[in-house]
C-alpha cells in the first residue's frame, strides 16, 4: 500500500481562495451522507463557486432538483473496470479544488485512488498528511462531534461564513403528487399518520418481526389517532404483514421523501430516513446502536476488540502518520450515535448497546419509544 505515499506527486500550488471557481465535492458514499452535506453545498454555491458532486447513484437522488449544483458524477466501485470508468468521466473536467468529504477515518483504497487521480489544482481532505496527492490535509480528531462540524471546519478554512446548517431536499413534484394521492386514498382527513421504517441497510440493523408487531400494537392500543404506514424494501419487507397497517411501496428513496415530509411522526432504525425527517423538521424517533464493551470473561471478545482497534490504528497511521507522530491526537473510535444524531429539535434519539437490533429486548424497546410519542 506504500505505493500511494511514494509515487504520487504532491501538488505544490499555493492555495488562494480567490482563484477558486470550480469545486468538486467527492462523497462516493450513501444517502445519509449526502443529506448532511446539503448545507455545505449551499454555502459553497452562495460563495459563487460552481459546485460538482461525485457519489453513488442512490445518494445522487437526494440532490435531484437542487439549484446549488452545477453538475454531478455517478461513482461505481463494484469492479475495478467500473471504478476506472467513473474516474474517466470525472477526469473530463479540471477543478480548482476537489474536496474529499468522507466523514469516517476508515481506509477505502478505491475511494483514495479516485481522489488522487481527479484532475484538480488542489486536493483537500482530513487527516491525509501521509498521502502526497493531498496538498491540503486538515487535522480532525473529534470522535464525539456531530458530522456537520467537519463540514463547518472546511468552510472556516475556505473563509466562508455560515450560520444555519439545516439540511435541504428539493422534492420532485410528480412524486409529491403521488404521495398526496396515497394519503387521500388511505388516511382519513381526521387521522394523523406515523411512518415506521423497521429495516436498515444491513441485516444487523433490522428490527425483528416480533419487535415490529409490538411497536405497531403500542400505537394501535395507546395512540389510535395515528394511522400506521410501514416503509422499506427487499424480501423482508415484501413478506411483512401486520393487520391494520399500510405498506408504502417506494422503489427509490426519492419516492418516500414527500411521505416523510408530510408525516406527523417517523420512527426509524435507518439514519438516512432520520436525516430526511430532520430536513423537514418532522417529529422523529430514531433507534441507534453502539457496540457493547467486550466481555471481560471471554478472551475471544477481548482479543477481537483489540484486533479491531489495532486495525484502525494502522489505517490512521497509513493516512496521517506525519501528523499523528508529531501531535498525538485523540485516536478513539468515533461514537456513531453522536456523529449521526438528528440535526433537528424534533428529532429524538434512543441508543442501545448491542451488536444487532434484534438483540434489543422488545419490552425495553417499546418502553423507550413510548416515552417520546
From TrEMBL:
Q: Name one GO biological process term.
A: lipopolysaccharide core region biosynthetic process
Q: Which GO terms describe its molecular function?
A: ADP-heptose-lipopolysaccharide heptosyltransferase activity
Q: Which Pfam families match?
A: Glyco_transf_9
Q: Which domain of life is it from?
A: Bacteria
Cellular component GO terms held in the UniProt record:
cytosol
Spell out the InterPro entries in the cross-references: Glyco_trans_9 (IPR002201), LPS_LOS_Heptosyltrfase (IPR051199)
Keywords annotated in UniProt: Glycosyltransferase, Transferase
Q: What is this protein called?
A: ADP-heptose:LPS heptosyltransferase
